[in-house]
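hey
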């Protein structure tokens, strides 16, 4: 069997060969996917599944925050503020059981994802 035929191997190879910009896009894709799943689970009343998906998305936001280069100028500070706002909104979403707040964060991250995708594409 081909060792690269599994989804895990394909994903691992994609990460290992991606540019820094592409990696950021992948992180956004993961966070957005988990938040969409959390939003649906919350609407269905699946509390455990909602929390699991939100924790995964929050871990990605934490990674984005931790890897910001604060010496890179004003854009880093703005991204930090957006990521911090997103984390706050997700905490509020969980407390208020508000899929609407999750959807708002999805919108913000989707906009950032599109901008990073353009940057990554221009770098290739």
């Amino acid at each position: 069997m081909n060792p690269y035929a599994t989804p895990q191997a394909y994903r691992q190879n994609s990460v290992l060969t991606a540019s820094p910009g592409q990696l950021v896009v992948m992180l956004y894709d993961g966070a957005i996917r988990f938040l969409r799943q959390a939003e649906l689970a919350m609407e269905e009343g699946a509390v455990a599944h909602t929390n699991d998906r939100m924790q995964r998305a929050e871990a990605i936001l934490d990674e984005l925050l931790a890897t910001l280069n604060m010496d890179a100028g004003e854009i880093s500070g703005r991204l930090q503020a957006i990521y911090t706002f997103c984390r706050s909104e997700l905490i509020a979403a969980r407390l208020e059981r508000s899929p609407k707040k999750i959807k708002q964060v999805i919108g913000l991250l989707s906009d950032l994802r599109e901008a990073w995708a353009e940057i990554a594409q221009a770098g290739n």
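The chain has one domain: 20-122. The CA atoms of residues 112 and 120 lie 12 Å apart.
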